[in-house]
Amino acid sequence: MLTTKGPIASRRRVLAGGAALAGALGAPAISGAQARPVRIGLLHPVTGFVAYSGAQGRLGGQMAIDEINAAGGIRSMGGARLEAVLGDTQAKVEVGVAEVEKMNEAGVAAIVGCFQSAVVLATTQAAAKYGIPYAVDVGASDLITTRGLKNVFRLKPGFGKCVDEAIKALDGINGGAGKVAKSAVIVHESSEFGTGTAKLLADRLPGINIEVREVIKHDNPTRNFDNVALRIRSLRPDVLMMSNYQNEYVLLARTLHQQRVDLAGMFSVLGGGFNYKFAKDLPDVAEHMMDYNHWFAPTNPKAQAMKKKVEATGTLFTFEVYLAYNAVKLIADALERAGSADKEKLTAALASSTWADHFMPYGPTRFVDGQNQGGEAAALQVLKGDIEVVYPAQFASAKAVFPKPKFG
Amino acid sequence: MPSFDILLAGIVNGLAAGAVYVLVAVGLTLIYGVLHIVNFAHGSLLMLAMYATYFLFAKAGVDPYAALPVVAGGAFALGYVLYRGVVGRFAHGKDENILLITLGLSIVIDNLALFLFTGDTQTIDVAHAQRMVEFGPLFLPRAKVIAFAAALAICAALGLWMARSDTGKAIRAVAKERQGARLVGIDVDHVFAVSYGIGIACLGAAACLLMPSFYVSPSSGHAFVLIAFTTVVLGGMGSFPGALAGGFAIGVIESLGGLLLGEQLGQIGISLAFILVLLLRPTGLFGARR
Predict the structure, then answer these.
(1) Which CATH superfamily hosts domain A2-156+300-372?
(2) What is the count of residue pairs from A and B with beta carbons less than 8 Å apart?
(3) B112 CB near a chain A CB, below 8 Å?
(4) Domain A160-293+378-395 belongs to what architecture?
(5) Which of A217, A224, A250 sits opposite B123 (nearest CB)?
(6) Which residues in chain B touch residue A284, judged by CB atoms under 8 angstroms apart?
(7) N or C: chain A end with fewer CB closer than 10 Å?
(8) Residues A328-374: tens digit of each pLDDT
(9) Chain A touched by B227 (CB under 8 Å)
(10) Nearest Cα to A155, choosing from A360, A337, A380?
(11) What are the b/e assignments for B17-34, b being 16+ CB within 10 Å?
């Protein structure tokens, strides 16, 4: 479903009516006083099995658009306002591609989206046909920015860098605990995101002297993780590495807790279900779980202000919200510098971006083949019901608890 | 090859998972047996019942097991009203209309749920259900043991009620020969609505047993519906004992398939069993030969 949001159509009608009236009264024409709005496609899976994450992404994108419009729009374009063109991928590749076609017909200047790597791969390709600049908010696969598509930009790091950094974090945390973790089992979902991440993990873990005892793949949705728990118990790994979307992440964690599977740690990379809600709803299950994921710079006042604003609406400040928010802001900065919504000029402006007005721990942007080079995630842990940053040290708000206490 | 203990645990886990499949399938097969239609709204109604369980717990602190009579009763009332007000009314006596109506209901319910509850995943934390129960070498989560025992008890009670009560006898009469039942004075439309209501009440019970160890989101009911369809065909369309045996069989096949072939490839076991039954006994394990 494709919908537009904003008061532009009615305002234009009013202006047109006003101009006609002024003409009739012999007054000077006022048409052209208002700059044309710039349409931005917000493409997310707001229905289907990752609907929550999609809705969070859409919320972040819309918040950025509302904020930019409230601050006077794109100044270099005469105060042009941004107008959201909303698209729903339904978590399906073919639907996502169809939505890009519709967005192209709707005349979007750029697209922000769209959460799942598999859908991002297809939709960025579809957007490339029309040269539409595409800012990937969430979508972890390294393939997204290594296919030579000139229209694709990603602010956050891909799973290659995330796994490398996660491995460093795990090694650091494990080293601090006297290297108690010597073996691991990897459980991952079966699409591009989980499979790609698991492959990298299986490749890197032996490098820090952690033997990978088994890699277990599961579908989305999975009804039951009892057997996976059974298998993990029999393999007796020290750590469990996870890479799954929200529902399966929560179900797996809960099953392992119910079955009292003792592990030194559960460590996910870009864990889809690791958020404040998980920590609040299932505190016993979530306690001491670790995740390497995107995180805002905790001391940045803008991040704190936005967190407050989002939480005041009863919504959680999850990574989908602030990554989509910053992706829209990245495009707005490029529009400001390009002074035009022309796709080629906008793509060039994005490619040369040195935008620093974000609240991620990244520094100014620098894109190489569409991938921002400064992007960095953080190791997080649920401690006493809250989420704390435990790595890297310069952003850490707490010390990691590892190994976690055994079940009584 | 996994050890004997692991295989044994896999079978027990499969039986525990199968108990919920049984309840979902019993509802489906009852509706099919009496109304001769496949209820496409089954997954969506299961999801609604799961939300009811969730809200009773989250807003009123009602334990999901204590909520079972309320949720099952509410589900029965919803099913009865849905049949009387929507399914039966707009079907005009045509089975193909009923199929389309239940499909339409499913779409409406799913989207309403998305609108009202958002796509967020909801879970409930029932501390006593998290404890483990020890059976010899096996450790089972209490939630699974309760689900298994409760599903068996509900099926036994339902079977007894169908065999002994007047309404149960009327349902069986309508299932067998609706014209004849009408001729002897049975209110067939009422029986249809009651049967639909009981089918949905089974979903209410399943929802209460599922929630302590599962989650609910607007799409979560569908995860169980394909399994329930397979169970019903495997056991025999419209057969009560078939749904019982089929549900447990599917649970065990799924579990052992996962253990032996891996979580993803293990699902192939269900399809293989399904194809084998269709080849060797097309009416299902307990289906009547025509």
Answers:
(1) Response regulator (3.40.50.2300)
(2) 110
(3) no
(4) 3-Layer(aba) Sandwich (3.40)
(5) A250
(6) 125, 127, 130
(7) C
(8) 999 999 999 999 999 999 999 999 999 999 999 888 999 999 999 98
(9) yes
(10) A360
(11) bbbbbbbbbbbbbbbbbb
